[in-house]
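From the shared-data thread, chain only:
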Amino acid sequence: MLTEPLDNALRTAGRRVLAMEAEALVTLADSLDGAFDEAVDILAGVSGRVIVTGMGKSGHVAAKIASTLASTGTPAHFVHAGEASHGDLGMIARGDAVLALSNSGGTAELAAVIAHAARSSVPLIAVTANAGSPLAEAARHAVVLPPVSEACPMGLAPTTSTTMMLALGDALAVALLERKGFSAADFRDLHPGGSLGQSLKLVSDIMHGGDAMPLVGPDTVMAEALFEISSKAFGCVGVTDEAGLLLGIVTDGDLRRSMSTDLLQRPVSAIMTASPKTIRPRALVAEAVAVMNDAQITALFVVEDGLPVGIVHVHDCLRAGVA
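Structure, as tokens:
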């Protein structure tokens, strides 16, 4: 077991590293200039893919950046700089752009990528800490990292520099996402699996449509409406006009508020709540849950152009793992 003084020393080292990297990120944010804007412009205009490349620790960061770009609406893939000259240059084609990462800007393995990009008229964007490096000089635009010390006590292991590269990749991805108008629904389409996919399900994925919807006309007497409520088991019935437009809804609460000896003979139009809460088919299930929670209701009609196309119950949301 570690002694308390050693525990403290280790904790101090950890905090020092985190503080240095946090300070470096603030410095990086303050240093962003027109080169960042130009990089976003180039990447947004790519008709092919963004090829992200690097070597060593920069290569690992490059692979993560490529994955982030691809998952946020910018088609991208990673090309290992060391494999490029052994055939993987074929992954880089006209219409692409190359985003090359190298702290020193002098990584020898990037030479083949730089030359191929020039031959193929593929725009090259450099991310480096050395503005006078071969990589920066060859690039159409260079995003230069500010001079900061590595968090390694020897100043050698890539720590602060790779943290800045990683964060810069996130900054580029989010800037591109916002520029393209990439929505939560778009994000959901690219992340159908796991808990994230569950949280991004659409109402149209879980709603009940067609004959499953409890619907009656406005002149229907409540005796018939109650049968529809019971048979469809949503605890409510929608009221539609001759054109199929949703006029209102009758819920258990409406029944309690309208209780009288002639209730069963009254038309639903006299009982219904007009202009009920509804939801769009392409809305996220989480949005439907929020509407139901705010209105303290358990079901929502799904409406498109005024027409009910489905109904969703809070139990459907629970089964989908969203509520």
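The longest strand covers residues 307-313.
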